[in-house]
Protein 1
Amino acid sequence: MVDRVLVTLDGTVRDPDEPLLCADDIGALRGDGIFETVLVRDGKPCAIELHLARLRRSAEALDLPEPDLGQWRTAVETAAKEWGTEREGQLRMILTRGRDSIASTAPAASRKPSGQAASPTAYILVVPVPERVDKARAEGISVITLSRGISVDLAPNAPWLLMGAKTLSYATNMAALRFAARMDADDVIYTSTEHRVLEGPRSTVVIQRDKQLITPPARNGVLPGITQRALYAEAEKAGWDCRYESFFTADLITADSIWLLGSVTLAARVATLDGLRMSPPDCAPEIAEMVDRGVSRAWNIADWT
Ligand SMILES: *Cc1c(COP(=O)(O)O)cnc(C)c1O
């Protein structure tokens, strides 16, 4: 059974133990690049069209050359097939600005305003899903709220913060998760300076009240979530009232349930929030099933707007 698969964007299956990056890759030097994390289930990449669409959007935000989505799709399918159907995999699509020395020595005419030569680094890596995932899906997670130290007004006025792009600069997100671990928590919900709920370091926050679902809008500086979108598509069909609205930390406590949604874990119910236990509502299995169905259905690239 393979436990890692590495495919470069040209479709070549590589030995994952052989070096791939050059020492001057800007992705490594500065975290300057973008990624997508995709669940591989039954040998297929879930909701791949939505991931491709968001990859394109993120590339645009970072002034990277427009990704060849057809080439990405083929390479992702190759990687998923190599991974096989035996178990779930966590597939990462990685796109960095490429090599620094090549960017700085390329003739000025071939450079973009951002100073790069047109040769990004692009590859796909599949590994087993993390161990925490099974437990998070089955039993839920403990979560603490942490301030992100920014206002929801910032995102629309500060495009250089790349709030709506999935960038490789995740050091602070990982630090937040380590901080949570020291507090015996599994995950984090970020809040804004005005105590509005934002997102998790790697997930979208959705709260449920009766037959209503609410998630913060992208304009508040959160990444538009693919798993959340998949849930909304199924929930709307099933007669739920699905909304994009700002809400506050206090609204978390009065919700019937809180969910962290992400492409690999899918749906994790918040079982403990800042030490307060939250018991599962009757609809908890229904929500998890809608997420499952939503990510498994066929999507069109134009569904991502
Ligand atoms: C990836 C990510 C999400 C959303 O996850 P999906 O995989 O799109 O469901 C939300 N917030 C952050 C910070 C993320 O990195």
Protein 2
Amino acid sequence: MLHPEIMKVSSGVSSYAGRPTWAEIDLDALAANFQAVRRQVGSGVKVAAVVKANAYGHGAVRCAERLAAEGADWFSVALPEEGIALRQAKITEPILCLGGFWEGQAEACLQYKLVPVIYRIDMAEAYHLAAQAAGVVADVHIKIDTGMGRLGVRSDNVDEFAARLRSFKNIRVDGVMTHFAAADAPDQDCFTNEQVARFQEALNHIRARGHNPTYEDMANSPAIYAHPKARANMVRPGGVLYGLWRDVLQPQSNLPEFSLVMRLRSCITLLKWVHRGETLGYGCTFEAARETLVATLPIGYHDGYMRALSNRGRAIVRGRYAPVVGRVSMDLTLVDVTDVPDVALGDPVTLMGTDGELSISVEDVAKTAGTLSYEVTCGISERVPRRYLPEAQ
Ligand SMILES: *Cc1c(COP(=O)(O)O)cnc(C)c1O
């Protein structure tokens, strides 16, 4: 005999063709977060909104369109390919390629008016030659490694680098930048201050060699709030724009309320009772301690709902938290809905984000999975369609 609960179909399901798993992207929340940054830095500081990695998984084109309308001065991407996609979507603001460019991409950077970050002399030369061939003088930004140890000209080599750049007549140093290793960590503030000092020194060398950069930029999201002097005349926020901050910013009393931009949702596609003592999922890692009503959700780790959430994550169903039971598999996840009154087939479920009174923050999901919130939203795969809110835009 089938229990009545598992036969009942929810009336609240929207008409949705295809697998009912999606990510809602709240563009008004994105705009509010951007305006919070704008208020913080004031109108005299340019904001280069970071939309690399498909805007941390939120959809680079739609996010950039809205951020442009809100007054973003620049966009930052990681790869020239990402910049080209924005240009093809008619984004006209200047675009900084944080990772520079790879062999064969100098012409495309010029053609699409992308501004590459330069950190090797051969890159500078290649860009100069490409600009010369195109008959233009092209802007570049120079990246200084002040302690991250990753991309950038080491600060102790900057003088020589700046001197050699002078021979490349078809490039112009439009900006100088660096990136912080630990701006989020109060116990590393000394190190961050040291990075700022090295940057100022590097800038002095660059100017002394006759370059005249318009932009000086250092600050990522945590530095904007914790190190005001690192704002210089441009900032590069990423995480806070998407409402990711609890595991990114230093704890401070006067932080604005950032709103989560992504909400991850699915629907119950199967309900079943299992008996006490029965096990669920791969590896039989969950054993029912009671008669248990189990809901199957069509979302799994290929969607970016991480396997690390097995037996640890939770979902919101009809105003209750329902724990993930058993292993998250590639395409499917199980939740225990025994304690959810009136639960029904087709009920919408929230795996990340706010749902009524309840909320599952991305930061909490990240903590449970042992990672950073950025990795969670970046990991929501292309298989999950993005639905943009508000809809009439
Ligand atoms: C990703 C990135 C940023 C943005 O960092 P958030 O912590 O997301 O604000 C800024 N600058 C560079 C060079 C980056 O790579």
